[in-house]
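Lab notebook, design round three. We kept the backbone fixed and only want residue identities now. Task for the bench partner: fill in a sequence for the structure below.
Input structure tokens:
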């Protein structure tokens, strides 16, 4: 799927290692700046779970149209229309028809500051609507920068649970 200058598609099992590496590189960068966000990814204990979620077709990859084939993704994210264990912990067990959960949105460090995250969120919202979803839910750590990012994109902060901001975006239908 093309979106402006991006190619966005479901990740395949072969993309799994590149996605794990992208997430770990972002976690390491955050840790070097004093943030513990995603630091659990650096232990390697989540690798198998992430690879399994990629294999289930829940992860997407994005590359710049000008990017070379077979290169690591420029960005990644996960969309799930069912609650994962973490979602249940934060949101409680819920009836989720019409809701999609967004997780692990990450842009590769060499594309940081290029507005790629903004374009991805716009695509995710459009894609969710096209797929018939009425809500996108996500959680993020309570950093001012992340909160500002999601606020700017029309996500509404519903509550904070265990230092995680729970955001929701609702279609205009």
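Proposed sequence:
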């Amino acid at each position: 799927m093309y979106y402006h200058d991006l190619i966005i598609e479901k990740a395949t099992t072969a993309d799994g290692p590149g996605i794990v590496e992208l997430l770990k590189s972002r976690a390491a960068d955050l840790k070097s700046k004093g943030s513990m966000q995603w630091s659990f990814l650096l232990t390697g204990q989540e690798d198998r779970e992430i690879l399994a979620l990629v294999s289930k077709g829940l992860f997407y990859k994005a590359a710049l149209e000008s990017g070379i084939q077979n290169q690591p993704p420029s960005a990644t994210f996960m969309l799930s229309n069912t609650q994962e264990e973490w979602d249940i912990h934060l949101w409680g067990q819920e009836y989720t028809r019409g809701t999609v959960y967004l997780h692990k949105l990450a842009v590769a460090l060499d594309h940081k500051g290029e507005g790629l995250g903004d374009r991805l969120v716009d695509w995710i919202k459009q894609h969710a609507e096209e797929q018939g979803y009425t809500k996108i839910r996500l959680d993020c750590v309570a950093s001012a920068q992340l909160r500002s990012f999601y606020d700017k994109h029309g996500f509404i902060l519903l509550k904070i649970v265990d230092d995680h901001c729970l955001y929701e975006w609702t279609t205009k239908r």
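Keep this in mind before ordering anything: Strands lie at 2-3, 6-10, 59-64, 75-80, 99-107, 135-141, 156-161, 164-170.
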